[in-house]
Structure formats: structure tokens, C-alpha cells
Amino acid sequence: MTSSLPISVDPTILRDVMDGRWAHVRRDARENLRDPDFAPVYGETVQEARERVTRMAKKLADSGRVGLGFPKQYGGEDDSGGSVTSIEMLAFGDLSTMVKAGVQWGLFGGALQLLGSARQHDKYLRDVMSFDLPGCFAMTETGHGSDVQQLRTTCTYDPETQCFDLNTPHQAARKDYIGNAAKDGRMAVVFAQLITGGKNHGVHAWLVPIRDENGDPMPGVTIGDDGAKAGLNGVDNGRLTFDHVQVPRDMLLDRYGQVAEDGTYTSTIENETRRFFTMLGTLVRGRVSVGGSASSATKVALDIAARYGNVRRQFAAPGDDREIVINDYLVHQRKLLPALATTYALHFAQGELVETMHDVQTAVHARGEQIDEEKQRELESRAAGLKVAQTWHATSTIQMAREACGGAGYLQENRLPHLKADTDVFTTFEGDNTVLLQLVAKGLLTGYRDTFGSLDGWGRVGFIADMVRETVLERTAARALISRLVDAVGRDDEAPMLDRGWQLKMFEFREKHSLEGAIRRLRKNSTTEGMAPFDMFNDVQDHVLKTAQTHIDRIVLEAFVAGIERTSDPDAKALLEKLCDLYALHTIEADKAWFLEHGQLTATRAKTLTSTVNQLVKELRPHIITLVDAFDIPQEWKACQILEEEETRQEVMAARDAELRVQAGEQADTPDATATDLEIAPAQ
Amino acid sequence: MTSSLPISVDPTILRDVMDGRWAHVRRDARENLRDPDFAPVYGETVQEARERVTRMAKKLADSGRVGLGFPKQYGGEDDSGGSVTSIEMLAFGDLSTMVKAGVQWGLFGGALQLLGSARQHDKYLRDVMSFDLPGCFAMTETGHGSDVQQLRTTCTYDPETQCFDLNTPHQAARKDYIGNAAKDGRMAVVFAQLITGGKNHGVHAWLVPIRDENGDPMPGVTIGDDGAKAGLNGVDNGRLTFDHVQVPRDMLLDRYGQVAEDGTYTSTIENETRRFFTMLGTLVRGRVSVGGSASSATKVALDIAARYGNVRRQFAAPGDDREIVINDYLVHQRKLLPALATTYALHFAQGELVETMHDVQTAVHARGEQIDEEKQRELESRAAGLKVAQTWHATSTIQMAREACGGAGYLQENRLPHLKADTDVFTTFEGDNTVLLQLVAKGLLTGYRDTFGSLDGWGRVGFIADMVRETVLERTAARALISRLVDAVGRDDEAPMLDRGWQLKMFEFREKHSLEGAIRRLRKNSTTEGMAPFDMFNDVQDHVLKTAQTHIDRIVLEAFVAGIERTSDPDAKALLEKLCDLYALHTIEADKAWFLEHGQLTATRAKTLTSTVNQLVKELRPHIITLVDAFDIPQEWKACQILEEEETRQEVMAARDAELRVQAGEQADTPDATATDLEIAPAQ
Hints:
The structure is a homodimer. Chain A is globular and about 90 Å long. Helix content of chain A is 52%, strand content 9%. The first copy, chain A, has helices at residues 11-19, 23-32, 46-62, 80-90, 95-115, 118-129, 272-281, 284-311, 330-366, 373-404, 416-423, 433-445, 463-466, 479-487, 500-526, 533-538, 541-565, 570-590, 592-597, 603-620, 624-629, 635-638, 641-663; strands spanning 135-138, 154-158, 163-167, 175-178, 187-196, 199-209, 221-225, 238-242, 245-248, 258-259, 265-266, 313-316, 323-325. Mean pLDDT of chain A is 89; it is low at 448-471 and 667-684. The first copy, chain A, is α+β, with helices and mostly antiparallel strands. Chains A and B meet through strand 12, helix 9, helix 10, helix 11 and helix 12 of A and strand 12, helix 9, helix 10, helix 11 and helix 12 of B.
């Protein structure tokens, strides 16, 4: 029923396909940052972890590798995509180090770079890059996380003093979970409501010194410590409270909004909400980095679980002496392989996203072009959607990998506990996943044309009126190929399930139908007498979020198809095709009820679907190790004891079992390799 | 479409319904162990945690509450169910303390009690109870966890010396993950292959001193440390290796197998495999405790997330100033309420299981009756199934709760990180969940009549021949009621979804059909030419495990129905009925594809199912806090900062927001409570 796979595929060819446009950045990291310093350290106290990670940040700065995303005139390379890729590479190692770097150069440095003026760049950017000026990105408040537009901190201009008065009005408005705040930060980019002449102009950002040369808090600044967290304990998250702190006028990051000496406010973007989203939009890099980093952590977890499952034996087959390796069990394959397939799919989608981001940001920030708002909006939606997909995939896959390694997976020395604890927050930071799904949904509902409504209870109710009637799906990459494949599908209920066109068509149909249904229901609610505006949206929230999910699934599948299209080696291509079949069919299987309910699968075909997925995992089983080899994760970064011990241990066990049977007076009917053939690690 | 709920329900009545047969044990714990010592402590080093937990174990011993499960003549109460209930109560607090207690009095003490002789009880039991003799349960080996029958450690009798020679043949046979081993244990119950007269009689257990009075390892014993783990760091897990350690003959725990001075082996149970399972079966208490403890941890997580969601606000409704509490969002309700419903369902199922276990064990161990093998086998299957259901439910629910609390959920001070990390191992210890599902499945396939085949590659191939042809489901509790309800259902495709009979019928149908399908496929494979025995089973492994899952679901639903039947208060009963509807329909919804595929739902009814679940969560929304109040978890045990702060903070925020709007020059159109009305926690 399916083309057969080559017996073996060269993982280095697969790796090269996956490495993509920033292959040089990945190679550089693998070759030059492979020392064990970048691996996590286990059993540290919070203080030890923080101190080590501060040292690592300095080490990274000294390596000269943190400047990729910064302008050339400050020693950077104006390479936005490269900077995200290098964060993704760091995420194979210690995740605290990655986050610390992300805070310093991505968030803090990025805000200064993208929201600040040339004068401010001249003054601070070099020190930021060298880590001589450690800084914070102080956006989130205890009471407001994802809803940034509603921040409560105020910064009020006084023409008398030529200063802003930065103030935290109440405890819920304190800045919270701020990286670099508890220990290292000397300055912070603080987001607050800009008030001048008695009018609120919305959220803006200021550079605010928070510690003096001696490391003591500046007057009016109170610094708290978030203390021990579930993970990422090398990052010093803290709380910042401002008691009428005087901030000089020139500390406003004023690229998108300026305050004159007399307090007059000016901006090239008149609409306040639009200005806010434009400012926020420049910071999309952080979200893209989190998604990519989540995928790196996922790859490490799969690498560990796949290799462990290939040597760990459990229960003997009937009539056999030797026990079976757990990767040979169907249910174990059903855990590992769909997770691997999804990881590959997401990898290609992330690659595409980074390219888009790079091109959009390079046009605006390096070449000084106007922002293409539609492209920017689409970029943000993609970034949000893929952040959601990659971080939830990380959470579930790392959990699965931990369980797949049993007790060994629970010991810190085997890495999985750190992977789990460190990545756990990814689903809720840089935007809570549920809120981000809502953002994606909103983009779909309005065809990106709504004028930047807020993200509150589903935007202004009125937006339904503007709703795009015709929900034509924009295909992503490999458009021509995808159209050809989809058009070639005959009758849906007869198409072979391994027909890529049928798979694509199913993904498209589900998204389109789901979106149309959501629109229909919203319309109906909006004309329902007596229904409160909130309820109109809340009533269909589950439907709308599901629509967003189906959209993301399609983007990911199309990216996988485009990635395969670029693969020239026939063996690597064949393996990727098979893996893509698994991704597509497993995704359809996971939502089988929907396809049955909507007449896209008959009961008979639904059963065929299950057996086809089983057949695919069986065919892919011999390639499990190749698939993780292709991630090419340096051994030094894995910091996993069991990978080093397990193989020897299992060989030894088999040999000694033969002895044991003799000792126990049994017939050693099929003697295995004897002890002397092997390198023995005797007990004690 | 549904009976309406009372406006409010008294949580103490609900609590009393849930407290059940061992209400006195629960009350005692809530009243007398509520001091904060039992709460977890955050930010400790591994060493600090271990020292604290050792002190807590001593404190527990001194409280006299650890003896419940031990015989009366040693100061216990012969109350097996009580002992499990008290572990379940401990699990609301620090989970390391619970596990330490479980190791000492459940596993170590339990093995001594249930596998040892009166002579051995006289000698050791009092010291075990007082914690003067801390001990280990040394079963698992690095290379063999769930497959206990294949342990590699040997214990060989020598009539010359009247001693056994206990030996670890190779590294993979070292005892691993053993609680109490790394620091405290002075003795261990060691499981090993008993060899005498050149013949292996299978796995038995010995009492083996591992440390001398000074705490140094005994000669021949090497003790390793498993080091830092993901969680449970107050428990000192370690590794034990035995280098030909001499163990006197009378240290064999010889209730089920004896070795005479001359080395003659005797046992009342001739069949080796059967003897092995009889011995193991007595230890079912551990598995029951883990399931119950997982549920306690789940309740704490839900308590925190439900209360947080009731005060945390996010985004304003259109046309409204005040932001919406997140419990009012449909998607949030969709997360919390099905998890709550499932937690209640599992609570009733666990209660039933504990009663069964108590009755079976009391008959044998306190009254000296013969083991009723069928009952024992069924008990083990139930214990395995509910351990699986409760531990996986804990893993997913605690994860959900963490995410539902956003950044706050990631801080250790808010408990959720500890809940997550501590319970994570529950899915793989006391039997890996996947292996336990296999055990449940095997019980179903053979109708408990197979003669204790091993759990290897699905037992002997031959067992298919013995397979019970007619798969009549044994109904559990409330048999008469359930039969009546099921029989009263009219045409399936017309029955209202809130008809309990229809729900029960769906659960039954799915289990029966799934089981029959598995049997049919196994039969077919067993007659397929050239199919290897392993493949016959492996080919249907996913189907078979799914069958086990459906069986567990039915048991749980029936227990919930029985629990409601015992509820006399009409308001409490109405609320539980509604919650049971949600459990049943959410479970059907989660497997909707199966019901569609098998003609049990039409597409139209499948859509009705979704809207019915949405309707149920909406109706239950006002009772969320009542539902967690009914868990009656002492505040002292929760150790959650945010529960203490959040309410005040939100009120303050609302008040100050009004001020802010004035300050910003906006109209404060609907002034909220002013600051002076409230107890203010001003910034700084």
C-alpha cells in the first residue's frame, strides 16, 4: 500500500535539509559552543544556579556571538533570523542560560534597539551587547500578563521638571516575573501608560536605571525576588515597584511616540491601539525564540527516550529467552513516532517563520522601509500560532519521554526532569497559549483586516459586521505544489490515505468549515435578543479556539510539504515523506471525531486510518535512531547519564543472564554472548 | 432540558458524603495533623529536605497514627483500609513525607507483616512502627522494574553454613530507586531468586541488615545514592548492591515458602508463578495508596486553580470597565470542570476499592481465612486500573492547573511546581501505567480464570484457547440500580443524553465491543501462518490497552452512581448528579470518534453532545468553589502564597483603577468601591 523505505538513511543528509538557511549559525554553535559549560548542572541551589548563569552570560557576550541581531555599526550583523537561530541552538543546552541570553539580548536589548532612537543606541547598545549593562524587560505586572494594553503602571510627564514620574499605583501593578531583576539588572525597559497634559496615550517604554554602581536599588525603586521557581532557577526573576521615580525625558524609547519639552505628544501613528500593536509587533522575535527553543528541548527529550527505548528491554517474547527492547512494542512506537513526526513538521514550520520574520524585520530595521502591515500582522499570527503549537508539543512530549524512561527518567542526572521543569513555563510566558490562540482566531475571523481591535472580550462587538465573508485560505509555501496535489485528488471517500493531496485537502476542509461555522454562530449570537456582548463571544469560545488550532495544523503540514520539496537526496526524501504521512494521518486521527461528524470519513475509513497509522509506525521503527541522530545534538549538551551507561549495562546483563541460568541449574539452551566477549562492568 | 441546580449547596454535606467509611480517619488527620509541619517546604537543598522528612517520619511514628494497618497485638488496629486512608490524607501535605511513610510502614513494614512469620513480627514489628528500625523495600532493579518475576539478584542457600548467599550478579541487577536506602535504612526487605539444591524457586524476600549501628554499610553491601530527583527530594532513594552477603536462614520471610536446614524447599502453593503472584498480591496496598495519594494531590491543585480563577481577572467585556474573572470564560470552565468531575468520580471509585481491599485483607490476615483467589485477582486488577486512572489524571490535571495560574503557577511559593514534580513519578512507580493497563487487559481477556500466566509478551500464547467466550460484564456496586437504569433506556439514538441509563449503556457497550474485537483479532492472529508469537500480541496492543481503559472508565462511572445513591441530602445529590452527567458525557466526548465509528452516535447527536457538555459546565460554574470546599483541605497544608494574597490584591486593583482613570483624565463612569472601603495593601 505504500512505497518502501530505504534500509538506512544518512542522518547527516537529513540534518543538512533541516539546518536550512542559517545552517552556518547552527554549525558554528555545534562546533564552537560544544563545551560542557553549556550543559545544565544538577543539584545546584538557586543562588549557585544564578551565579553560574551570570558567568555564562558573560562568557556568551565575550564569545562575540550575541550580536547577530544588532546593527552592524555596533558590531552586530543585522541578522534577525540568525539571532533567533542561535537562541534555538542554545536551547539544546542549559535552558536557564538560553533564557538569560533571551532576556538580555532579545528582550531588553531588542526593545532598546527596536523602540529606541539612534542616540539611545549610541549610548547603551555596546554595553548591552557586552553584558556590562545587564537589563530587564519590565512589561508583565502581577495583575496583568497577557493583557498588556491594560497595564496599570503610569509614567506621567511634568514639563516643570522635564521628567516623567514613574509610579506603581498598587501591588497588583508591580512588575512581576521579570528576568534579570532579582540580582543582575542595572537598567530596565519599563512599560507603562504614558500620560502627558492630563491625557493617557497608551503603553510606552522607558529606559530606567534600577540599581546603582554598587548594586543597590535606585531611589524609589523596590526590588523583590520571585524566589525558587519550578525550573529556570538560573534566571533571577524578580519584582519591581516604582514609587514616583523621576525619569528624565530622554529616557523614553521614542521611536513611535515622542514627548516634547513642553509635554506635547507626537507620533506618526495616530490611532492609539494601532500604535500600541505596532510597538509590540516589533518584539515578535521573543515569541519566535520561545517556540524554537521549546522545539530544541523537545528534540533532546526525544533523543534520550528514543535511545533508551532502543536498549532497554522489558519482558521476554513467548518462547524466547531474550527480552524485547521497548521500542519494539507497538504502544511505545505509538508514543515516540508521532511525537517525532510532529517535531519534524514543527521544525520546518519554524524555519519558514524565522525566514519570514527575518525578511520583514530586515526590510524595516536594516533597510528602513515602511512596515507592510498585512505582512506584519500575518507574521505575528504565525508567531503566536507556532509558539502555541511548539510549547504545548514540548510539554506533552517531554512528559511522555520522562514516562518512557521510567524511574531513570525521574533522576536529575538523566536530564528529563530539568527539561520538563525548565520548559513548563513556555506555555504561559511570552503570551499565554490560550490567549494567543484567541489572537490567531481573531486574525482568521477578520482576515487580518480589522483595525487592530483590542484583544479583550473578543474585540469590539462591531467587528462581526466587517467580517470577511469569503474564507479563502491563503496557502503558505510551496503553493503551486500544494494546489496541484489537492486538485489531483479524486473522490474523497476513495482517495488513498497516503495521498498527500487528500491529507492536505482534509486539513484545508477542516479549517475552512470550522471557520465558517464560527462566523455563522457569532453572527447568530450578535442578532440574538438580550444576549450580553460578552456571552456572544464566550458562547463560541471553544469553537473559535479550535478553528485557530486547525489553522495552525494546516500551516505546519504545508511547511512540512515545502521542506520535503526542497530535499534532493532520494533516501532522505523518502523517509521524510513517510514521516509526513505519519504527521498528517496522526493529526487527522487525533481529531477523527470531527472528520466523522462532518462526513469526511466513513466508519470504515476511520478504521483504515488507525491501521494505516499502525503500519506507518511499524515501517518507521527501524529509523528511530536515524531520526534523532539527524538533530545532531552535541553529546556534551545532553548531560544525560543513562545514555552513557545503558548500552554497556544491557549487554552485560544479557551475558550474565546466561551464567545465571547455568547457576540455577537450568539449561542454557541458546547461549548468548559470554561474559568474556564483552567489556564488563562488574557489580561493584 | 435538565433539572436545575439549587443556588447553593453546603460543602460540608458533600464532604461527609465523600468521607465515607473511614471518615473518622480523615477527621482525625484534618484536626490533629493540621500543623504546618506537614506542608511542603520550598527552596530546600536535597540534604535539608531529607533531614526534615526523616524528622517528620519520627514525628508521625510518635503520633501513634502509623499503626492502623498493623496487627492489634503489636499496638496496631488491623485496619487495612484505615491505613490507606491515612496515607491519602498525608498526601494533601508534603508528598515526600507521605512517600517516606509509605516506604516505611506500607512497603517495608507491610512486607514484613504480610510475608513474614509471627516470630519475625515479634522481633521487628514494634521497631518498624516506631521508626527505630528504618527500612527499605528493595525490589526494583536498574534493569528490571515492572517485570519483577525476572529479577536478577540471587539468594542461594548453603546447608553447610545455614545461610543464604545474597548476590548482585551484575550492575543491571543492583537494586535501584529504593526509598530509605541512601540515608536512613538499617534493614531492607530484599527480593531475589531463591535457589536451593541447585534449583530456582522464583522470587522470595529476605530481611537483610544493610547498615550497622553507626550507619556504615554492612560487609558486602554497597550503598549508592540516586541523588537529586525531579521531586520527592525528601525521600532518600538509593541503590543497593550485594556482594555475596551471608543472610541467616531465619531471615527469609517465609510465610509462602520455607527452606529447611538441609535446604529442602516447601510451600503450600506448588506452582511457582502462582506462588509469586500470591506473594505479590498481598502487597496491593502500595498500589492502592499511590492512586489515592495522586487524587489528593489533584484535589490540592484544583483547589488552587479554582480559587485563583475565581478572582483573577483578564480582559474587559465589551462595553464594560471591569475585567472578567477567568472562571467565567467557557474555555476555562472546560478545563476546570471536567477535571473536577473526574476527580469526584475517581474519589468514589477509590473509596470502593479501599473497602474491597480492606475486606479481602482483613479476612485473610486478621481472621486467617483462605485467600479467595477470584476476589484477590479482581482486587489487583481494580487496584492496577485505578492507580493508572488516578495517576494519569493527576499528571494532566496538575499540569492544567499550573498553566491556569500562569506565571504565579510557576513560582514554588504557590505549591503547583511541587505538586507537579512530586507526583510525576506516580505514573511509573508501583508498576508502570502502561504495564498495569496490560495487566488489567489480561484479566479481562481471561476472565480472571487464566492460571496466573506471566505478564511477559502477553502471557503464554496458548491462553487464547482458554479465552472466555462470553464477555458478560460484571457490574460493580449498585448493581440493581444500574441494571434498572440501563434496562429502562429506550432506543439509543433517541435517549436523552442526561439519562444515566443511556450513559451507563454507552460505557458498557464500548467495553464489551472493544473486548470482543480484541479477542477476535487475537484469535485471527493466532491462526495466521508465519506470524511470530510476539507479533500476534503486539499487533493488537493498542486495541487491548484501549479495552482496559474502557473497563476502568465503566468501573469509575458505576462507582460514582453508587456514591450518589448513598447521598440523602437532596441538594448535594442534585449537584453530584450534574457532576456525574459531566463526567459521563465528557468521557464519551473524549472518545467521540469511537462512538461515531461504531454507530452509537449520529453526527447530529455528536454535536448535541458538545453543546450539552457546554451547557453542563455553564450550570456548574457557580458551584466551582463549593466543589473544592468539599475537599476540606486544611489551609495549613496547602502552602500556597497566592491563595492568601490574591483576593485582597484584586479588590485593591479595582479600587485603584478607578483612581487611575480619574488621574488619566478619563471619565470614571461607574466608580467601583473606593480605596477607603478596602483594606489596602499599598505598593511598598
